[in-house]
Amino acid sequence: MGALLALASAVLYGIVDFAGGMLSRRLHFTAVTFLGQLGGLLLAVTAALLVPAHSVRPADLCWGALSGVGSGAAMLLLNRGLSRGAMSVVVPVSAVTSVALSVLCGVLVLGDRPTFLAWAGIAVAAPALWLVSGGGAARARSAGEGAGRGTPDGLWASAGVAVQYLALAQAGPSSGLWPVAAGRLAAVAVLLPAVVGGTRPLRGPRPSPVRAAQALLTGAGAALALSLYLLAAQRQMLAVAVVLASLYPALPVLLGLVALHERVTRRQAAGLLGAAAATVLLALG
Q: Is residue 259 a contact partner of residue 76, using CB atoms and an 8 Å limit?
């Protein structure tokens, strides 16, 4: 059950990543990120009210808030990279590095002991994610110097994603989804100074009601994906849950093929096959 929840989280994150990337090329990335976190806060609070919570401890809310700080910073950096047209750099760097950080912390700090099959799945997943995204470094060199600017964004974002996953997994199962709600509130608070005090970051077209609604929906989808991840982490080893949830880059590639009629490269095809193999190994492990 935990593996299925983590995979569902990956599917939702993939949809949100694709939609957020498209929006960040039409609106300023700060506006997209902030509105997304507001939408996530609304959905998270609603879901938390509906899901039973037997005992919400202050520590659970603090872990959720720390997770929100990481995800808010990560989404801001990811959207900035996507707005610069560096998806082929930002996505693989952020996804692969965050997986590596999370797995290492899970094994060295939290005492996770993956099985042989799970280790095999982890070993296959990292290069598969890189290939699915096109092998960012080579793509950046062929696209020109401008695309390479996304590399720092991806590296810093990966730290935020790792904090998001690791901190949220520490919340107790009796707290329901309130840690997710606390995280969305913390993310809004972290991003608020950039919106209120920074006129310069918000230069560009103001969001129309339709665009604003789209940004809110992407944030709601991200909050739902994070809720599914939290439920998965409560039922599944952290290292496995993180890797499965981090397979989301495969979906934007598939959406690009179907919706945008893009061509898949040999590297991406190999990466998709590797992601499928990693999913099977992790599920069996």
A: no
For 47-68, the pLDDT digits (tens) are 999 998 999 999 999 999 999 9
Residue in 141, 124, 128 with CA at minimum distance from that of residue 89: 141
**pLDDT tens-place string over residues 72-131:** 998 888 888 777 654 555 666 666 667 777 777 877 777 777 778 778 877 887 787 777
Q: Which residues of 192-221 are buried (b: 16+ CB within 10 A; e: fewer)?
A: eebbeeeeeeeeeeebeeebbebbbbbbbb
Token representation of residue 214 = 């789209």
Are the C-beta atoms of 140 and 89 separated by less than 8 Å?
yes
How far, in Å, are 7, 94, 129, 283 from residue 232 at the CA level? 9, 21, 20, 12
Which tops the pLDDT comparison, 54 or 206? 54
Determine contact, residues 43/223, Cβ cutoff 8 Å.
Answer: yes
Cα 105 from Cα 197, distance rounded (Å): 36
For residue 235, give the DSSP letter: T
| 218, two tokens | 């992407």
Say which amino acid occupies 236: Q
Q: How far apart are CA 266 and CA 165, in angstroms?
A: 31
Other CB atoms closer than 10 Å to residue 1's CB: what's the count? 9
Q: If we measure between CA atoms, which residue out of 162, 88, 80, 114 comes closest to residue 282?
A: 114
Whole-angstrom distance, CA of residue 124 vs CA of residue 235: 23
DSSP H helices, 51-133, are: 58-83, 87-108, 116-132
